[in-house]
Amino acid sequence: xxxxxxxxxxxxxxxxxxxxxxxxxxxxxxxxxxxxxxxxxxxxxxxxxxxxxxxxxxxxxxxxxxxxxxxxxxxxxxxxxxxxxxxxxxxxxxxxxxxxxxxxxxxxxxxxxxxxxxxxxxxxxxxxxxxxxxxxxxxxxxxxxxxxxxxxxxxxxxxxxxxxxxxxxxxxxxxxxxxxxxxxxxxxxxxxxxxxxxxxxxxxxxxxxxxxxxxxxxxxxxxxxxxxxxxxxxxxxxxxxxxxxxxxxxxxxxxxxxxxxxxxxxxxxxxxxxxxxxxxxxxxxxxxxxxxxxxxxxxxxxxxxxxxxxxxxxxxxxxxxxxxxxxxxxxxxxxxxxxxxxxxxxxxxxxxxxxxxxxxxxxxxxxxxxxxxxxxxxxxxxxxxxxxxxxxxxxxxxxxxxxxxxxxxxxxxxxxxxxxxxxxxxxxxxxxxxxxxxxxxxxxxxxxxxxxxxxxxxxxxxxxxxxxxxxxxxx
Length: 475
Fold this sequence. Notes:
Layout: H1 6-10, H2 17-32, E1 38-39, E2 69-75, E3 83-89, E4 97-101, E5 109-112, E6 114-116, E7 119-120, E8 123-124, E9 127-133, E10 141-146, E11 153-158, E12 169-174, H3 181-191, E13 198-201, H4 217-230, E14 235-237, H5 257-262, E15 278-282, E16 285-289, H6 301-309, E17 320-324, H7 341-353, E18 358-361, E19 367-370, E20 373-374, E21 388-389, E22 395-399, E23 420-424, E24 428-434, E25 439-446, E26 456-461
Parallel strand pairs: 1-23, 12-13, 13-14, 16-17, 17-18, 18-22
Antiparallel strand pairs: 2-3, 3-9, 4-5, 4-10, 6-9, 7-8, 10-11, 12-24, 15-16, 19-22, 19-23, 20-21, 24-25, 25-26
């Protein structure tokens, strides 16, 4: 039952006439079930979501004077041959140089970055360094070192293969993480899944704004907490509402100030004018990041950028088209209900026209997967205002269940709407495993299960490649 949405993403393959008859029958069964999908029978024990104390091991400051901390990496250009290395030093600026190479004991290349600092209310940040290392070889393990002398620290990462249609690649997916005991369980569970090579993070990082006076020390603790993953594999950042840090009552009138200083992305490489919306290619995937909390109406910079960006996607090169956005467009929980509606109205038809494969979002602190549906036929007079099955539409996945301090969204709308394939109020993470140009496997893992257990899973069949030798999306 947990996988009945598989029929939706399987449809559209070349089939024989007898198989077609069977699929017609299957479709009738799907239509009959459109009064709702699966609401999981798993019930998580009601527990308060508690912040980890400041002296927790996961927040420990690295030993030594001015030792680099909060190390994190993200893709540094459009095609994956560069990496942005970021870290913080607390005592003094130190060096912004990164040493790197393909052998741990021979870091024979270097790149020099820059550092910045910011104040927020009564807080002054450490020295935040960003350095982009370029002209990296694809599919290669690199070691890199930041810091000076005895307190220098060495990490490693692996670059993605060259962009191509049959490049296998596995992404992790997490949203709304925070820094509670449940957050730690989510990250630990994700780390126990060894296949993921990069993280698609759908927004709401530290939840510092949930602490008194937007306590920016909680940005530092969060950076140290996630370093065990972010220093070794790139996290692709999406901005959420908890990154706004807009607090006029504290004299802080610049939205996103801490986030913009701490987390850099390669937005200019895709022609964007803002770090809140951008795109990258990675393996056989084209990833578009959108901003729920920046203007997106007609003629705004984000609208104009997306309008020009989607036609650039070459599905012969990157057959998998993934969109990240914080606020979900389809949501059957009572929390944040309809908050993504205006953005859906603006952009949904574009995503359907371009056969986007999947849209990942967060914001709602639970898990939900939709069928392939769209709601684009309504024209103010025809009354067609209900989502309908649409083979060209994306699957919408809400995964705002990282473990944040606000707890789970456990109240659902009833009956379960027809667009909803599976939903459950539990903490967890997901894996999106691209096999080749035609197939990808998706699985959601709740924290309460072993790392090999998938609480919800589905095979994706790429609509642009209905067979291995025929590109149906070419113009």
